[in-house]
Fold this protein.
Amino acid sequence: MSATVSSATPQQPLPQVRADWLPLAIVPLLALAALPFVGSPSTWLTLTVAGLAMGLIVFIIASGLTLVFGLMDVLNFGHGVFIALGAFLATTVLASMGAWTASPNLLVNFTAVFTAMLVAMAAAGTVGLAFERVVIRPVYGQHLKQILITMGGMIVGEELIKVIWGPQQIPLPLPAGFRGSILVGDAAIEKYRLIAVAIGLVVLAAMLWVFGRTKVGLLIRAGVQDREMVESLGYRIRRLFVGVFVAGSALAGLGGVMWGLYQQNVIPQIGAQVNVLIFIVIIIGGLGSIGGCFVGALLVGLLANYTGFLAPKVALFSNILLMVAVLLWRPQGLYPVAKR
Amino acid sequence: MSSAGDSGRTATEPPLLALEGVQTHIGAYHILHGVNLAVPRGGLTVLLGRNGAGKTTALRTIMGLWRASGGCIRLDGEDVTGLLTPDIARRGVAYVPESMGIFSDLTVKENLALAARGARRAEDIDARRLERVFGLFPALERFWLHPGGLLSGGQKQMLSVARAIVEPRKLLLVDEPTKGLAPAIVQNMIAAFRELKRETTVLLVEQNFGFARALGDSVAVMDDGRIVHAGTMAALAADEALQHRLLGLSLAAHQ
Protein backbone atom coordinates (compact mmCIF):
# COMPACT_ATOMS: atom_id res chain seq x y z
CA MET A 1 0.00 0.00 0.00
CA SER A 2 1.84 3.03 -1.16
CA ALA A 3 -0.63 5.78 -0.50
CA THR A 4 -1.72 6.69 2.93
CA VAL A 5 -3.17 9.84 4.24
CA SER A 6 -1.58 9.30 7.60
CA SER A 7 1.67 11.11 7.15
CA ALA A 8 0.29 14.58 6.79
CA THR A 9 -2.75 14.12 8.96
CA PRO A 10 -2.24 16.20 12.04
CA GLN A 11 -2.02 13.76 14.91
CA GLN A 12 -3.89 15.96 17.32
CA PRO A 13 -6.19 14.01 19.60
CA LEU A 14 -9.89 14.23 18.98
CA PRO A 15 -12.00 15.97 21.56
CA GLN A 16 -13.20 13.52 24.16
CA VAL A 17 -16.55 11.95 23.48
CA ARG A 18 -18.70 13.56 26.11
CA ALA A 19 -22.27 12.47 26.46
CA ASP A 20 -24.69 15.29 27.12
CA TRP A 21 -26.21 14.20 30.43
CA LEU A 22 -27.54 17.59 31.43
CA PRO A 23 -31.08 17.27 30.02
CA LEU A 24 -31.39 13.77 31.50
CA ALA A 25 -30.21 15.10 34.87
CA ILE A 26 -33.11 17.56 34.91
CA VAL A 27 -35.52 14.68 35.50
CA PRO A 28 -34.18 13.72 38.97
CA LEU A 29 -33.49 17.39 39.70
CA LEU A 30 -37.11 18.26 39.01
CA ALA A 31 -38.25 15.40 41.22
CA LEU A 32 -35.95 16.49 44.06
CA ALA A 33 -36.93 20.13 43.67
CA ALA A 34 -40.58 19.18 44.05
CA LEU A 35 -39.97 17.35 47.35
CA PRO A 36 -39.84 20.39 49.68
CA PHE A 37 -42.94 21.88 48.03
CA VAL A 38 -44.94 18.68 48.30
CA GLY A 39 -43.76 18.26 51.88
CA SER A 40 -44.77 14.71 52.71
CA PRO A 41 -42.30 12.14 51.28
CA SER A 42 -45.04 9.55 50.90
CA THR A 43 -47.20 11.89 48.82
CA TRP A 44 -44.12 12.85 46.83
CA LEU A 45 -43.37 9.20 46.08
CA THR A 46 -46.95 8.59 44.97
CA LEU A 47 -46.85 11.62 42.67
CA THR A 48 -43.43 10.71 41.30
CA VAL A 49 -44.47 7.18 40.38
CA ALA A 50 -47.65 8.54 38.81
CA GLY A 51 -45.56 11.07 36.87
CA LEU A 52 -43.13 8.44 35.66
CA ALA A 53 -46.00 6.17 34.57
CA MET A 54 -47.65 9.01 32.67
CA GLY A 55 -44.31 10.04 31.20
CA LEU A 56 -43.49 6.56 29.94
CA ILE A 57 -46.95 6.17 28.36
CA VAL A 58 -46.54 9.53 26.65
CA PHE A 59 -43.08 8.46 25.49
CA ILE A 60 -44.47 5.28 23.92
CA ILE A 61 -47.09 7.35 22.11
CA ALA A 62 -44.78 10.18 21.01
CA SER A 63 -41.72 8.17 19.92
CA GLY A 64 -43.22 7.27 16.55
CA LEU A 65 -44.29 10.85 15.91
CA THR A 66 -40.84 12.30 16.46
CA LEU A 67 -39.19 9.72 14.17
CA VAL A 68 -41.76 10.33 11.45
CA PHE A 69 -40.85 14.00 11.55
CA GLY A 70 -37.12 13.32 11.77
CA LEU A 71 -37.03 10.90 8.84
CA MET A 72 -39.31 12.58 6.34
CA ASP A 73 -40.14 16.03 7.75
CA VAL A 74 -43.73 14.91 8.08
CA LEU A 75 -45.89 16.70 10.64
CA ASN A 76 -48.64 14.23 11.47
CA PHE A 77 -51.38 15.87 13.48
CA GLY A 78 -53.46 12.73 12.95
CA HIS A 79 -51.32 10.69 15.34
CA GLY A 80 -54.06 10.97 17.96
CA VAL A 81 -56.35 8.75 15.85
CA PHE A 82 -54.15 5.75 16.59
CA ILE A 83 -54.25 6.50 20.32
CA ALA A 84 -58.05 6.70 20.26
CA LEU A 85 -58.31 3.55 18.17
CA GLY A 86 -56.12 1.64 20.63
CA ALA A 87 -58.09 2.86 23.64
CA PHE A 88 -61.49 2.04 22.13
CA LEU A 89 -60.39 -1.39 20.94
CA ALA A 90 -59.23 -2.04 24.50
CA THR A 91 -62.75 -1.35 25.78
CA THR A 92 -64.16 -3.91 23.33
CA VAL A 93 -61.49 -6.56 23.86
CA LEU A 94 -61.48 -6.28 27.65
CA ALA A 95 -65.30 -6.24 27.79
CA SER A 96 -65.42 -9.41 25.72
CA MET A 97 -62.91 -11.02 28.07
CA GLY A 98 -64.94 -10.16 31.16
CA ALA A 99 -64.17 -13.42 32.92
CA TRP A 100 -60.44 -12.88 32.39
CA THR A 101 -60.42 -9.35 33.73
CA ALA A 102 -62.60 -10.24 36.71
CA SER A 103 -60.30 -13.08 37.74
CA PRO A 104 -58.17 -12.33 40.78
CA ASN A 105 -55.29 -14.18 39.08
CA LEU A 106 -52.79 -11.56 37.89
CA LEU A 107 -51.48 -13.77 35.09
CA VAL A 108 -54.97 -14.17 33.64
CA ASN A 109 -55.45 -10.37 33.87
CA PHE A 110 -52.17 -9.83 32.05
CA THR A 111 -53.24 -12.20 29.29
CA ALA A 112 -56.38 -10.15 28.74
CA VAL A 113 -54.49 -6.85 28.74
CA PHE A 114 -51.78 -8.19 26.43
CA THR A 115 -54.45 -9.47 24.06
CA ALA A 116 -55.99 -5.98 24.01
CA MET A 117 -52.55 -4.47 23.42
CA LEU A 118 -51.78 -6.83 20.54
CA VAL A 119 -55.15 -6.20 18.90
CA ALA A 120 -54.69 -2.43 19.35
CA MET A 121 -51.16 -2.51 17.92
CA ALA A 122 -52.18 -4.64 14.93
CA ALA A 123 -55.20 -2.46 14.17
CA ALA A 124 -53.37 0.84 14.67
CA GLY A 125 -50.45 -0.42 12.56
CA THR A 126 -52.78 -1.46 9.75
CA VAL A 127 -54.71 1.80 9.85
CA GLY A 128 -51.31 3.58 9.97
CA LEU A 129 -50.28 1.84 6.75
CA ALA A 130 -53.46 3.02 5.02
CA PHE A 131 -53.16 6.52 6.55
CA GLU A 132 -49.62 6.88 5.22
CA ARG A 133 -50.66 5.76 1.74
CA VAL A 134 -53.86 7.81 1.47
CA VAL A 135 -53.28 10.91 3.60
CA ILE A 136 -49.53 11.47 4.02
CA ARG A 137 -48.02 10.35 0.72
CA PRO A 138 -49.69 12.99 -1.49
CA VAL A 139 -48.34 15.83 0.67
CA TYR A 140 -44.67 14.97 1.16
CA GLY A 141 -42.58 18.09 1.62
CA GLN A 142 -45.56 20.43 2.04
CA HIS A 143 -45.89 21.30 5.69
CA LEU A 144 -49.01 23.44 5.51
CA LYS A 145 -50.90 20.80 3.55
CA GLN A 146 -49.63 18.13 5.95
CA ILE A 147 -51.02 20.00 8.93
CA LEU A 148 -54.38 20.60 7.26
CA ILE A 149 -54.87 17.14 5.82
CA THR A 150 -53.66 15.21 8.85
CA MET A 151 -55.93 17.31 11.09
CA GLY A 152 -58.71 16.48 8.67
CA GLY A 153 -57.78 12.81 8.91
CA MET A 154 -57.97 13.11 12.68
CA ILE A 155 -61.48 14.59 12.53
CA VAL A 156 -62.65 11.86 10.16
CA GLY A 157 -61.09 9.20 12.41
CA GLU A 158 -62.76 10.66 15.48
CA GLU A 159 -66.16 10.68 13.76
CA LEU A 160 -65.70 7.09 12.60
CA ILE A 161 -64.96 6.11 16.19
CA LYS A 162 -68.21 7.81 17.24
CA VAL A 163 -70.03 5.82 14.56
CA ILE A 164 -68.64 2.53 15.84
CA TRP A 165 -68.48 3.06 19.61
CA GLY A 166 -70.87 5.97 20.08
CA PRO A 167 -70.14 9.53 21.21
CA GLN A 168 -70.36 8.87 24.93
CA GLN A 169 -67.64 8.16 27.46
CA ILE A 170 -66.93 4.43 27.83
CA PRO A 171 -65.55 3.12 31.10
CA LEU A 172 -62.37 1.10 30.90
CA PRO A 173 -62.02 -0.49 34.31
CA LEU A 174 -58.74 -2.00 35.38
CA PRO A 175 -58.63 -5.79 35.62
CA ALA A 176 -59.18 -7.03 39.17
CA GLY A 177 -55.53 -7.78 39.83
CA PHE A 178 -54.40 -4.33 38.64
CA ARG A 179 -56.63 -2.46 41.08
CA GLY A 180 -55.62 -1.16 44.46
CA SER A 181 -52.34 0.04 45.79
CA ILE A 182 -49.30 -1.32 47.46
CA LEU A 183 -47.83 0.43 50.45
CA VAL A 184 -44.22 1.55 50.36
CA GLY A 185 -43.68 2.95 53.82
CA ASP A 186 -46.55 5.40 54.16
CA ALA A 187 -46.91 5.88 50.46
CA ALA A 188 -49.75 4.21 48.62
CA ILE A 189 -48.69 3.46 45.07
CA GLU A 190 -51.29 2.30 42.62
CA LYS A 191 -50.40 -1.09 41.20
CA TYR A 192 -51.34 -0.12 37.66
CA ARG A 193 -48.87 2.77 37.69
CA LEU A 194 -46.06 0.39 38.58
CA ILE A 195 -47.21 -1.94 35.81
CA ALA A 196 -47.28 0.98 33.37
CA VAL A 197 -43.74 1.95 34.39
CA ALA A 198 -42.60 -1.64 33.88
CA ILE A 199 -44.20 -1.91 30.43
CA GLY A 200 -42.77 1.50 29.50
CA LEU A 201 -39.28 0.39 30.52
CA VAL A 202 -39.61 -2.82 28.46
CA VAL A 203 -40.61 -0.77 25.39
CA LEU A 204 -37.71 1.63 26.05
CA ALA A 205 -35.25 -1.28 26.34
CA ALA A 206 -36.56 -2.75 23.08
CA MET A 207 -36.12 0.61 21.36
CA LEU A 208 -32.60 1.07 22.70
CA TRP A 209 -31.76 -2.39 21.39
CA VAL A 210 -33.19 -1.65 17.95
CA PHE A 211 -31.43 1.71 17.66
CA GLY A 212 -28.12 0.62 19.13
CA ARG A 213 -27.73 -2.94 17.87
CA THR A 214 -29.59 -3.43 14.63
CA LYS A 215 -28.94 -2.23 11.13
CA VAL A 216 -32.50 -0.96 10.79
CA GLY A 217 -31.96 1.16 13.90
CA LEU A 218 -28.71 2.47 12.50
CA LEU A 219 -30.47 3.34 9.25
CA ILE A 220 -33.21 5.21 11.09
CA ARG A 221 -30.64 7.21 13.09
CA ALA A 222 -28.71 7.97 9.91
CA GLY A 223 -31.88 8.80 7.96
CA VAL A 224 -32.97 11.35 10.57
CA GLN A 225 -29.65 13.14 10.03
CA ASP A 226 -29.20 12.90 6.26
CA ARG A 227 -31.90 11.23 4.24
CA GLU A 228 -30.22 11.84 0.89
CA MET A 229 -26.99 10.18 1.92
CA VAL A 230 -28.82 7.09 3.15
CA GLU A 231 -30.42 6.81 -0.28
CA SER A 232 -27.06 7.36 -1.97
CA LEU A 233 -25.74 4.35 -0.05
CA GLY A 234 -28.40 2.23 -1.74
CA TYR A 235 -31.16 2.08 0.89
CA ARG A 236 -34.77 2.80 0.02
CA ILE A 237 -35.69 5.35 2.65
CA ARG A 238 -39.34 5.47 1.68
CA ARG A 239 -39.71 1.82 2.65
CA LEU A 240 -37.91 2.56 5.92
CA PHE A 241 -40.23 5.50 6.51
CA VAL A 242 -43.37 3.42 5.91
CA GLY A 243 -41.99 0.85 8.37
CA VAL A 244 -41.35 3.53 10.98
CA PHE A 245 -44.78 5.06 10.38
CA VAL A 246 -46.50 1.71 10.88
CA ALA A 247 -44.41 0.92 13.97
CA GLY A 248 -45.06 4.41 15.36
CA SER A 249 -48.81 4.00 14.78
CA ALA A 250 -48.75 0.59 16.48
CA LEU A 251 -46.92 2.10 19.46
CA ALA A 252 -49.52 4.88 19.61
CA GLY A 253 -52.20 2.15 19.68
CA LEU A 254 -50.34 0.46 22.55
CA GLY A 255 -50.04 3.81 24.32
CA GLY A 256 -53.78 4.35 23.78
CA VAL A 257 -54.58 1.13 25.66
CA MET A 258 -52.27 2.17 28.51
CA TRP A 259 -53.59 5.73 28.58
CA GLY A 260 -57.20 4.52 28.61
CA LEU A 261 -56.45 2.19 31.51
CA TYR A 262 -54.60 5.03 33.27
CA GLN A 263 -57.70 7.26 32.96
CA GLN A 264 -60.06 4.29 33.40
CA ASN A 265 -62.38 5.70 30.77
CA VAL A 266 -62.29 6.59 27.13
CA ILE A 267 -63.87 9.43 25.15
CA PRO A 268 -63.69 9.96 21.38
CA GLN A 269 -61.71 13.18 21.94
CA ILE A 270 -58.90 11.28 23.69
CA GLY A 271 -56.71 11.53 20.60
CA ALA A 272 -57.07 15.30 20.31
CA GLN A 273 -56.36 15.70 24.04
CA VAL A 274 -53.18 13.67 24.00
CA ASN A 275 -52.09 15.21 20.68
CA VAL A 276 -51.30 18.55 22.34
CA LEU A 277 -49.25 16.80 24.99
CA ILE A 278 -47.19 14.72 22.58
CA PHE A 279 -46.42 17.68 20.35
CA ILE A 280 -45.15 19.56 23.39
CA VAL A 281 -43.03 16.52 24.26
CA ILE A 282 -41.40 16.16 20.86
CA ILE A 283 -40.71 19.88 20.62
CA ILE A 284 -39.14 19.90 24.09
CA GLY A 285 -37.06 16.85 23.19
CA GLY A 286 -35.84 18.17 19.83
CA LEU A 287 -37.75 17.13 16.72
CA GLY A 288 -36.53 13.74 15.51
CA SER A 289 -34.66 12.88 18.70
CA ILE A 290 -35.74 9.69 20.44
CA GLY A 291 -33.61 10.41 23.54
CA GLY A 292 -35.05 13.92 23.74
CA CYS A 293 -38.54 12.51 23.39
CA PHE A 294 -37.88 10.22 26.37
CA VAL A 295 -36.59 13.01 28.63
CA GLY A 296 -39.32 15.41 27.47
CA ALA A 297 -42.05 12.85 28.20
CA LEU A 298 -40.75 12.20 31.72
CA LEU A 299 -40.53 15.94 32.44
CA VAL A 300 -44.08 16.50 31.19
CA GLY A 301 -45.40 13.55 33.21
CA LEU A 302 -43.70 14.57 36.44
CA LEU A 303 -44.54 18.25 36.15
CA ALA A 304 -48.21 17.52 35.38
CA ASN A 305 -48.50 15.43 38.55
CA TYR A 306 -46.61 17.79 40.85
CA THR A 307 -48.47 20.90 39.70
CA GLY A 308 -51.76 18.98 39.67
CA PHE A 309 -51.23 18.44 43.38
CA LEU A 310 -49.64 21.76 44.33
CA ALA A 311 -51.52 24.22 42.13
CA PRO A 312 -54.24 22.62 40.03
CA LYS A 313 -54.87 25.84 38.11
CA VAL A 314 -51.23 26.07 37.06
CA ALA A 315 -51.36 22.43 35.96
CA LEU A 316 -53.50 23.46 33.01
CA PHE A 317 -50.61 25.30 31.41
CA SER A 318 -47.59 23.85 33.22
CA ASN A 319 -46.54 21.97 30.08
CA ILE A 320 -46.56 25.16 28.05
CA LEU A 321 -44.42 26.83 30.73
CA LEU A 322 -42.04 23.89 30.60
CA MET A 323 -41.81 24.16 26.83
CA VAL A 324 -41.09 27.88 26.98
CA ALA A 325 -38.40 27.36 29.62
CA VAL A 326 -36.72 24.56 27.66
CA LEU A 327 -36.78 26.46 24.39
CA LEU A 328 -35.30 29.55 26.04
CA TRP A 329 -32.44 27.34 27.23
CA ARG A 330 -32.09 25.20 24.10
CA PRO A 331 -34.06 26.63 21.18
CA GLN A 332 -33.70 23.40 19.17
CA GLY A 333 -34.94 21.25 22.04
CA LEU A 334 -33.09 19.23 24.67
CA TYR A 335 -31.27 16.97 22.22
CA PRO A 336 -31.18 18.69 18.82
CA VAL A 337 -30.72 16.33 15.91
CA ALA A 338 -27.58 17.14 13.94
CA LYS A 339 -28.76 17.68 10.41
CA ARG A 340 -26.30 18.06 7.61
CA MET B 1 -7.86 -3.53 -13.64
CA SER B 2 -6.21 -1.01 -15.85
CA SER B 3 -5.80 2.68 -15.93
CA ALA B 4 -7.59 4.87 -18.40
CA GLY B 5 -4.19 6.14 -19.23
CA ASP B 6 -4.07 3.23 -21.70
CA SER B 7 -5.04 5.61 -24.40
CA GLY B 8 -5.97 3.09 -27.10
CA ARG B 9 -8.47 1.36 -24.87
CA THR B 10 -10.86 4.17 -24.18
CA ALA B 11 -11.30 4.91 -27.83
CA THR B 12 -12.62 1.48 -28.70
CA GLU B 13 -14.56 0.44 -25.62
CA PRO B 14 -17.99 1.94 -24.92
CA PRO B 15 -17.87 4.38 -22.01
CA LEU B 16 -18.89 3.24 -18.54
CA LEU B 17 -21.12 6.27 -18.14
CA ALA B 18 -22.65 8.31 -20.93
CA LEU B 19 -24.81 11.40 -20.67
CA GLU B 20 -26.66 12.31 -23.83
CA GLY B 21 -28.37 15.69 -23.99
CA VAL B 22 -29.17 15.67 -20.27
CA GLN B 23 -31.38 18.53 -19.08
CA THR B 24 -32.09 19.31 -15.44
CA HIS B 25 -34.53 21.79 -13.99
CA ILE B 26 -34.54 22.69 -10.31
CA GLY B 27 -37.81 24.42 -9.59
CA ALA B 28 -38.10 27.25 -12.08
CA TYR B 29 -34.38 27.18 -12.91
CA HIS B 30 -33.00 25.43 -15.96
CA ILE B 31 -29.55 24.28 -14.83
CA LEU B 32 -28.30 21.64 -17.29
CA HIS B 33 -28.88 22.54 -20.95
CA GLY B 34 -28.16 19.28 -22.73
CA VAL B 35 -25.01 17.79 -21.20
CA ASN B 36 -23.12 15.30 -23.36
CA LEU B 37 -20.41 13.47 -21.45
CA ALA B 38 -18.68 10.12 -21.83
CA VAL B 39 -16.77 8.74 -18.86
CA PRO B 40 -14.37 6.05 -20.03
CA ARG B 41 -14.09 2.80 -18.12
CA GLY B 42 -11.20 2.88 -15.64
CA GLY B 43 -9.15 5.86 -14.60
CA LEU B 44 -10.22 9.26 -13.43
CA THR B 45 -12.24 11.83 -15.32
CA VAL B 46 -12.27 15.37 -14.00
CA LEU B 47 -15.21 17.69 -14.47
CA LEU B 48 -13.92 21.24 -14.34
CA GLY B 49 -15.71 24.55 -14.47
CA ARG B 50 -16.31 27.72 -12.56
CA ASN B 51 -18.82 28.10 -9.74
CA GLY B 52 -22.37 27.71 -10.93
CA ALA B 53 -21.41 25.95 -14.17
CA GLY B 54 -23.57 22.95 -13.26
CA LYS B 55 -20.93 20.43 -12.14
CA THR B 56 -22.60 19.46 -8.88
CA THR B 57 -25.98 19.38 -10.59
CA ALA B 58 -24.52 16.99 -13.17
CA LEU B 59 -23.28 14.62 -10.42
CA ARG B 60 -26.56 14.81 -8.54
CA THR B 61 -28.51 14.15 -11.72
CA ILE B 62 -26.39 11.08 -12.46
CA MET B 63 -27.04 9.89 -8.90
CA GLY B 64 -30.79 10.43 -9.32
CA LEU B 65 -30.90 13.02 -6.52
CA TRP B 66 -32.30 15.43 -9.07
CA ARG B 67 -34.42 14.05 -11.86
CA ALA B 68 -33.25 14.72 -15.42
CA SER B 69 -36.01 16.54 -17.28
CA GLY B 70 -34.63 15.46 -20.65
CA GLY B 71 -31.93 13.38 -22.27
CA CYS B 72 -30.55 10.00 -21.30
CA ILE B 73 -28.01 8.67 -18.80
CA ARG B 74 -26.50 5.26 -19.52
CA LEU B 75 -24.47 3.24 -17.07
CA ASP B 76 -22.73 0.27 -18.62
CA GLY B 77 -25.11 0.54 -21.56
CA GLU B 78 -28.23 0.49 -19.35
CA ASP B 79 -30.58 3.47 -19.33
CA VAL B 80 -30.67 4.65 -15.70
CA THR B 81 -32.27 8.05 -16.33
CA GLY B 82 -35.52 7.50 -14.46
CA LEU B 83 -34.18 5.26 -11.70
CA LEU B 84 -34.37 6.19 -8.03
CA THR B 85 -31.17 7.00 -6.16
CA PRO B 86 -31.02 3.71 -4.19
CA ASP B 87 -31.41 1.71 -7.41
CA ILE B 88 -28.58 3.65 -9.04
CA ALA B 89 -26.41 3.08 -5.96
CA ARG B 90 -27.19 -0.64 -6.11
CA ARG B 91 -25.81 -0.73 -9.65
CA GLY B 92 -22.40 0.12 -8.20
CA VAL B 93 -22.34 3.90 -8.13
CA ALA B 94 -21.03 5.62 -5.00
CA TYR B 95 -21.41 9.31 -4.24
CA VAL B 96 -19.14 11.50 -2.13
CA PRO B 97 -21.02 14.81 -1.85
CA GLU B 98 -19.39 18.17 -1.35
CA SER B 99 -20.92 18.30 2.14
CA MET B 100 -19.32 14.87 2.75
CA GLY B 101 -22.64 13.58 4.12
CA ILE B 102 -21.13 12.16 7.31
CA PHE B 103 -23.67 10.87 9.84
CA SER B 104 -22.28 12.93 12.68
CA ASP B 105 -24.06 11.12 15.53
CA LEU B 106 -22.86 7.74 14.26
CA THR B 107 -19.37 6.44 14.94
CA VAL B 108 -16.81 5.88 12.19
CA LYS B 109 -17.55 2.18 12.58
CA GLU B 110 -21.29 2.70 12.18
CA ASN B 111 -20.80 5.01 9.20
CA LEU B 112 -18.81 2.29 7.44
CA ALA B 113 -21.19 -0.48 8.51
CA LEU B 114 -24.01 1.37 6.76
CA ALA B 115 -21.94 1.89 3.64
CA ALA B 116 -21.20 -1.85 3.45
CA ARG B 117 -24.68 -2.80 2.40
CA GLY B 118 -23.98 -6.51 2.45
CA ALA B 119 -22.85 -6.42 6.09
CA ARG B 120 -25.43 -6.75 8.84
CA ARG B 121 -22.93 -5.47 11.40
CA ALA B 122 -19.55 -3.74 11.24
CA GLU B 123 -17.95 -7.09 12.08
CA ASP B 124 -19.30 -8.50 8.81
CA ILE B 125 -17.48 -5.99 6.61
CA ASP B 126 -15.11 -7.75 4.21
CA ALA B 127 -11.83 -7.79 6.18
CA ARG B 128 -9.64 -7.26 3.13
CA ARG B 129 -11.56 -4.20 2.03
CA LEU B 130 -11.48 -2.79 5.53
CA GLU B 131 -7.76 -3.36 5.63
CA ARG B 132 -7.50 -1.48 2.35
CA VAL B 133 -9.51 1.41 3.80
CA PHE B 134 -7.28 1.52 6.86
CA GLY B 135 -4.22 1.32 4.61
CA LEU B 136 -5.35 4.41 2.74
CA PHE B 137 -6.72 6.26 5.75
CA PRO B 138 -5.13 5.06 9.01
CA ALA B 139 -6.83 7.85 10.97
CA LEU B 140 -10.13 6.01 10.55
CA GLU B 141 -8.81 3.00 12.44
CA ARG B 142 -7.62 5.23 15.27
CA PHE B 143 -10.96 6.96 15.59
CA TRP B 144 -13.02 3.82 14.93
CA LEU B 145 -15.40 4.36 17.83
CA HIS B 146 -15.58 8.15 17.68
CA PRO B 147 -18.67 9.94 16.37
CA GLY B 148 -18.20 11.20 12.83
CA GLY B 149 -19.18 14.69 13.93
CA LEU B 150 -16.02 15.02 16.04
CA LEU B 151 -13.60 14.33 13.18
CA SER B 152 -11.62 17.13 11.56
CA GLY B 153 -12.55 18.28 8.05
CA GLY B 154 -9.83 16.15 6.46
CA GLN B 155 -10.79 13.08 8.47
CA LYS B 156 -14.44 13.55 7.52
CA GLN B 157 -13.42 13.64 3.88
CA MET B 158 -11.45 10.42 4.38
CA LEU B 159 -14.48 8.80 5.99
CA SER B 160 -16.69 9.96 3.16
CA VAL B 161 -14.34 8.46 0.56
CA ALA B 162 -13.90 5.33 2.68
CA ARG B 163 -17.66 4.80 2.71
CA ALA B 164 -17.63 4.94 -1.07
CA ILE B 165 -14.98 2.22 -1.40
CA VAL B 166 -15.76 -0.12 1.48
CA GLU B 167 -17.67 -2.21 -1.06
CA PRO B 168 -16.57 -2.78 -4.65
CA ARG B 169 -18.06 -0.09 -6.91
CA LYS B 170 -18.08 0.50 -10.62
CA LEU B 171 -18.09 4.25 -10.44
CA LEU B 172 -17.26 6.84 -7.79
CA LEU B 173 -18.83 10.29 -8.11
CA VAL B 174 -16.75 12.68 -6.02
CA ASP B 175 -17.66 16.33 -5.52
CA GLU B 176 -14.81 18.73 -4.67
CA PRO B 177 -12.87 16.52 -2.26
CA THR B 178 -10.24 19.18 -1.60
CA LYS B 179 -12.58 21.98 -0.63
CA GLY B 180 -11.46 23.55 2.62
CA LEU B 181 -8.65 21.04 3.21
CA ALA B 182 -5.11 21.97 4.26
CA PRO B 183 -2.52 21.67 1.45
CA ALA B 184 -0.74 18.76 3.15
CA ILE B 185 -3.97 16.77 3.29
CA VAL B 186 -4.70 17.63 -0.35
CA GLN B 187 -1.35 16.04 -1.29
CA ASN B 188 -2.33 12.89 0.53
CA MET B 189 -5.78 12.85 -1.03
CA ILE B 190 -3.98 12.90 -4.39
CA ALA B 191 -2.01 9.84 -3.32
CA ALA B 192 -5.19 8.08 -2.20
CA PHE B 193 -7.06 8.80 -5.44
CA ARG B 194 -4.07 7.60 -7.46
CA GLU B 195 -4.51 4.25 -5.75
CA LEU B 196 -8.28 4.25 -6.12
CA LYS B 197 -8.39 5.00 -9.82
CA ARG B 198 -6.39 1.85 -10.48
CA GLU B 199 -9.27 -0.28 -9.33
CA THR B 200 -12.38 1.70 -10.18
CA THR B 201 -13.64 4.50 -12.39
CA VAL B 202 -13.81 7.94 -10.81
CA LEU B 203 -15.72 11.01 -11.98
CA LEU B 204 -14.43 13.92 -9.93
CA VAL B 205 -15.73 17.46 -9.81
CA GLU B 206 -12.97 19.89 -8.96
CA GLN B 207 -12.11 23.57 -9.02
CA ASN B 208 -8.52 23.12 -7.95
CA PHE B 209 -6.73 22.73 -11.29
CA GLY B 210 -3.50 21.58 -9.65
CA PHE B 211 -5.34 18.67 -8.02
CA ALA B 212 -7.21 17.91 -11.23
CA ARG B 213 -4.04 17.94 -13.32
CA ALA B 214 -2.23 15.63 -10.92
CA LEU B 215 -4.96 13.00 -11.08
CA GLY B 216 -7.03 13.35 -14.24
CA ASP B 217 -6.73 11.00 -17.17
CA SER B 218 -9.51 12.64 -19.09
CA VAL B 219 -11.23 15.93 -18.53
CA ALA B 220 -14.44 17.70 -19.39
CA VAL B 221 -15.06 21.38 -18.82
CA MET B 222 -18.52 22.74 -18.10
CA ASP B 223 -19.87 26.21 -18.54
CA ASP B 224 -23.43 27.44 -18.23
CA GLY B 225 -24.89 23.95 -17.96
CA ARG B 226 -23.09 22.49 -20.98
CA ILE B 227 -19.89 20.59 -21.68
CA VAL B 228 -17.68 23.02 -23.59
CA HIS B 229 -14.59 20.87 -23.87
CA ALA B 230 -13.72 17.19 -23.49
CA GLY B 231 -10.41 15.46 -24.05
CA THR B 232 -7.37 14.12 -22.27
CA MET B 233 -5.93 15.89 -19.27
CA ALA B 234 -2.47 15.71 -20.82
CA ALA B 235 -3.65 17.78 -23.79
CA LEU B 236 -5.32 20.40 -21.62
CA ALA B 237 -2.35 20.57 -19.23
CA ALA B 238 -0.01 21.21 -22.16
CA ASP B 239 -2.11 23.94 -23.75
CA GLU B 240 -2.04 27.08 -21.64
CA ALA B 241 -4.03 29.11 -24.13
CA LEU B 242 -6.83 26.53 -23.99
CA GLN B 243 -6.71 26.54 -20.20
CA HIS B 244 -7.00 30.27 -20.15
CA ARG B 245 -9.87 30.27 -22.62
CA LEU B 246 -11.82 27.49 -20.86
CA LEU B 247 -11.07 28.08 -17.27
CA GLY B 248 -10.22 31.74 -17.11
CA LEU B 249 -9.09 33.55 -14.04
CA SER B 250 -11.49 31.94 -11.64
CA LEU B 251 -9.63 28.67 -11.93
CA ALA B 252 -6.21 30.15 -12.34
CA ALA B 253 -6.69 31.65 -8.93
CA HIS B 254 -6.94 28.17 -7.46
CA GLN B 255 -3.71 26.86 -8.99
Remarks:
- Chain B is about 40% helix and 25% strand.
- Chain B touches chain A through 50 residues (CB under 8 Å).
- The beta strands of chain B are 17-26, 29-39, 44-48, 68-75, 78-79, 93-96, 171-175, 201-205, 218-223, 226-232.
